[in-house]
Write a structure and sequence with these properties.
heterodimer, A: 255 residues, paralog of FGE (formylglycine-generating enzyme), three-stranded antiparallel β-sheet, two-stranded antiparallel sheet, 6 helices, 8 strands, B: 237 residues, alpha+beta, seven-stranded mixed β-sheet
């Protein structure tokens, strides 16, 4: 009797600790949809997967950095992050006074974000997965044709410093996922698959000399300006870049 | 009993620890053999023998000593990447095993009809302009962006079809993750449009002996004068 009691207590303790380390995830039921930019502008299939309910927070990233000293600001090599990586932290492992623990982590590179997710046994979402979840509003899985939906996103683009807000401060969408729009932009694993702007280097739009098969990638819905902005940002990023308003969240395959 | 358990645990733990610290050292420089008459240009053989054309005995090639480099890798070196790659000969390597030579790298896929043949031609054009005396100091590396289809065998036959054989040419098959990461280091963008077809940027990148990116040539069929001079500079340093 005593042993079983002890066991239950331990199990309970274990699970609470476990649940605390692992941020909350929800299952996304896969399906097909037509993204703004897809393969031949046709439907894209998304498999079932789990996604973090919230973006990764400052506090969570502090914990990660403490456990993985290679990702300290002073240790991270330039191949993996530019010089503004975690630049507004007070020190290697401390936030600044004005940074809230529950605000989304930003100023992290793609390499750092990817490594964080892998450390949790997760991965970064693909562009297709991220867009699939993000096209939902509060009640519909695909609200992209609604005026309100686009208006909300566009009004966020105009608001300054939303990255200072806490996670969960925007709406809960159809999938019970928060903050896809309204707080920060988010890294995706294959952000560098976006070819629309060339590389915003010296080449021009759909330069057939720079891109093989570039004519095959075109907007299916140019009206969807909000999404267009996201793709444009992705197209201009490099993996070592860090931005004040660019964070991330992780996903996991359904077992 | 308990002591044994403890002991076992200790041993397991210490092996784990020591496994982490193990350093693998690799012999890079090997002696090659060449025909003294250079009947076949600068073709080299791995083993001694005789030249198939003039029948003279092959001589150890008089190549320069491979410059000794420090083990330190700088922060911006691509040798910091730890992904594994298969070569066209079926060897598994890490990028840091390419250290010591100037690297000219490009990302392609073998089923590509439009840009890749032209990219391959651009690589050959560069190669043609580098004096033969540097052959042992340079490595032309073609990395596949289609790790599923482009197996070592497929890469091998691509190298034959495109006259890119010999030890200065290397073809690499990675993992999907490794390729995505590598592309990000090169700022190369690509997307699978359909099976066997990708959109991708056409960029040729030059790295110095310690894996630092020093030049990128963008576009197809562009003037490679600057690329050539940057490559020649890497031999001086």
């Amino acid at each position: 009797m005593k042993t079983s009691m002890r066991l239950t207590v331990w199990m309970l303790l274990f699970f609470t600790v476990y649940a605390n380390c692992q941020s909350k995830m929800v299952l996304i039921k896969g399906g097909e949809y037509i993204p703004l930019y897809g393969r031949d502008s046709t439907k894209v299939k998304v498999k079932n997967f789990y996604i973090d309910v919230y973006p990764v927070t400052n506090q969570e990233f502090v914990t990660f950095v403490k456990k993985n000293p290679n990702w300290k600001r002073s240790k991270t090599i330039r191949l993996f992050a530019d010089s503004s990586y975690l630049s507004n932290w007070k020190s290697d492992t401390e936030l600044n006074e004005h940074q809230k623990e529950k605000s989304p982590i930003t100023n992290v590179s793609w390499f750092a974000a990817k490594n964080y997710c892998e450390n949790q046994g997760k991965r970064l979402p693909t562009v297709d997965e991220w867009e699939y979840v993000a096209m939902a509003n509060k009640t519909m899985p695909d609200a992209r044709t609604l005026k309100n939906y686009n208006k909300f996103i566009l009004s966020w683009y105009e608001k300054p410093k939303t990255y200072n807000q806490e996670i969960g401060s925007t709406f809960e969408n159809y999938w019970k996922v928060y903050d896809l729009h309204g707080l920060v932009w988010e890294w995706t694993s294959d952000f560098n698959s976006v070819l629309i702007t060339g590389e915003s280097r010296k080449d021009v739009d759909t330069d057939s000399d720079l891109f093989c098969g570039s004519a095959a990638v075109n907007a299916t819905d140019l009206m969807n300006y909000a999404a267009f902005m996201r793709y444009a940002i992705r197209g201009s990023l490099k993996a070592k870049y860090t931005m004040k308003n660019l964070g991330f969240r992780c996903v996991k395959d359904e077992k | 009993m308990k002591t044994i358990k403890h002991l076992l645990f200790f041993i397991a733990f210490s092996t784990l620890l020591s496994a982490c610290n193990k350093k693998t050292t690799k012999e890079i420089s090997k002696t090659d053999y060449q025909c003294p008459m250079e009947c076949e240009g600068d073709k080299v053989y791995k083993e001694p023998g005789s030249c198939p054309i003039c029948k003279m005995d092959l001589k150890p090639s008089t190549k320069k000593e491979v410059k000794i480099l420090s083990d330190e890798i700088s922060e911006t070196s691509i040798f910091n990447l730890t992904s594994s790659w298969n070569t066209e000969d079926g060897e598994t390597i890490q990028l840091k095993e390419l250290k010591g030579k100037t690297l000219v790298m490009v990302m392609i896929y073998t089923t590509c009809k439009a840009a890749c043949p032209r990219l391959a031609a651009d690589m050959r054009n560069i190669e043609a302009k580098i004096p033969a005396k540097y052959n042992n100091e340079i490595n032309y590396v073609l990395v596949s962006i289609d790790p599923v289809y482009d197996t070592p065998e497929r890469l091998k036959s691509f190298s034959k079809e495109n006259f890119m054989e010999g030890k200065k040419w290397t073809f690499l098959q990675g993992t999907e993750d490794g390729v995505r990461e590598f592309a990000n280091v090169l700022s190369v963008k690509y997307k699978q449009i359909s099976p066997l077809d990708f959109s991708h940027s056409n960029i040729i990148s030059v790295f110095n002996r310690i894996g630092e990116l020093i030049h990128q040539q963008e576009g197809l069929g562009v003037d490679n004068k600057e690329t050539i001079s940057k490559i020649l500079e890497t031999f001086q340093n």
